[in-house]
Design brief:
Aminopeptidase, binds zinc ion, alpha/beta, 369 residues, 6-stranded mixed sheet, 7-stranded mixed sheet, elongated, 11 helices
Length: 369
């Protein structure tokens, strides 16, 4: 999308003046990561301040920029914003905002400083951009958690781990997830979407897609742990990143083995670049979320750790996400507990407590920004 020939003409007329008014110099490009894709965004110094090529950023967010009657109009769904070159007043959804820096056109392209870009993004998408080294990080500014995807691991032909007495991971995690959904909806008023409500098989990519399509604020994948050493017990919570320990790699391999039911090999589908694109935006929030959940779960299960691993199911979620291993089904006592309604309800209750604590943290953080 171009700004228009009209601008070009105006620009040519004012070129001699603007040449002196707007000394520009190219800085370098930034990688903006958004919804699993990476975009190159050019930065320029205009009048000594850092500006970004606005059209490229607006393209990433699906905004539509057009030039009419000397004004730059931005449209997104039922929102709009209006810029005028070198004018400190910007209208966003009819509200007039006054900035110290002004929108500038250089070489036919609209350039905006981060402060203006973020005002627009905040109003139109409830998101904001932060500059970090050579990357532009997009994060959510939604003031409240309004929807959560709960993902009961495995299902159907993929039973997950199996206990000594024959109890399946897929059955335990479905019961916990159904209970958790009820609690969150009733007590926190947050809408919960389940990736499966019955004993059916769902591919790992499809689970992430359900969360993304519903623009959820959190993604929780619920599992039971298993280990050859049947004496191991307790709860672990993971967020996405390359595994750092042999144990994390072993848990990752076991959970990613679900891919074989989709005719994929875990190794072939380990696209290490993808996790980076989708989840780096949320590393901090995901790790905080894990910590709150493990703190709560450790009241009913031995506290093991929060760790990082490359789980296929988390790889393409565009929101803070974690994978919870509530207890070891491979441990005889663990399996016995998991079979009882009482323990499954306790698990749901404590995961719920973790979410509640995270919600408080998140909404406090948002209210300060
Ligand atoms: Zn599992």
């Amino acid at each position: 999308m171009r700004i228009g020939r009209f601008v070009k003409r105006i620009f040519l007329i004012i070129l001699p003046t603007s040449y002196f008014l707007l000394p520009t110099s190219n800085l370098y490009s930034y990688q903006l990561k958004y919804q699993g894709k990476s975009y190159t965004i050019e930065e320029k110094k205009i009048n000594g301040y850092s500006y970004f090529k606005a059209e490229d950023i607006f393209d990433c967010f699906g905004f539509n920029l057009s030039y009419e009657n000397g004004r730059l109009n931005l449209k997104y769904k039922n929102h709009s914003a209006l810029f005028i070159e070198s004018n400190p007043f910007i209208s966003i959804d009819g509200r007039l905002l006054n900035f110290t820096l002004t929108p500038e056109i250089d070489n036919n392209d609209l350039y905006l400083p981060l402060i203006i870009l973020n005002s627009v993004l905040k109003s139109l998408k409830r998101e904001k951009i932060t500059k970090k080294e050579n990357g532009l990080i997009v994060s959510s500014m939604r003031p409240r958690l309004s929807s959560i995807t709960i993902d009961p691991g495995h299902g159907g032909k993929d039973s997950g781990a199996r206990g000594h007495y024959g109890y399946f991971e897929k059955d335990a995690v479905l019961d916990i997830s159904l209970e958790l959904k009820k609690m969150i909806e009733k007590k926190l008023g947050i809408n919960c979407i389940l990736t499966r409500k019955t004993d059916v098989f769902i591919g790992l990519g499809e689970r992430a897609k359900i969360a993304n399509d519903n623009s959820c604020d959190l993604f929780l994948s619920i599992h039971c742990n298993a280990c050859k050493d049947r004496s191991a017990y307790g709860a672990e919570v993971y967020f996405l990143s390359p595994a750092k320990t042999n144990w994390a790699r072993a848990v990752e391999a076991r959970e990613n083995a679900s891919l074989k039911y989709e005719g994929k090999t875990p190794e072939a589908s380990v696209e290490y670049i993808l996790w980076d694109m989708a989840q780096t935006e949320f590393l901090e929030e995901s790790s905080t979320l894990c910590k709150y959940i493990l703190d709560a779960l450790s009241k009913i299960a031995k506290r093991r750790f929060v760790s990082q691993a490359n789980f296929a199911v988390l790889r393409s979620t565009y929101m803070p996400a974690c994978l919870i291993e509530v207890e070891f089904i491979s441990n005889k006592e663990g399996e016995r507990r998991l079979k009882t309604e009482k323990f499954k309800k306790e698990c749901a209750k404590h995961i719920f407590e973790g979410i509640k604590a995270y919600k408080k943290f998140y909404e406090k953080k948002m209210s300060y920004e």
